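Hey,
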Amino acid sequence: MKVLNAIMIIALGLILVGVLYFANQDGEEELPEGSEVTVVLSLDHDVFQINQEERIIYILEGTVQDDILGKLVAKDGSPQEYRITTSEGSTKSLDELYEYDRLYVTSENGVEEDYYHFEYVIELN
């Protein structure tokens, strides 16, 4: 009888451990996969230049969105998503870029987002 009670207690203990384990698994969120990098680099310094510290992209007046979007790359080479908005963060209706328009960068993992703003310069060095 004592042996049967001991087996039942051990079985109940194992069942309780299993229930607690699976209950804890359902509550855990999976970490997003991919890079967190939102830093971009210019592939063409004749079109635009980037000040990383102040998050400024220097452009010439008359630059359009396609001039920029096709020439960006993540600092670590990971895929990123880009969108250009007005200075207030609204969707742009015009292709031409104006001072203080923003380039939003979303990291590969989809969690991190940051933005740069555009400023005109007379010439690019």
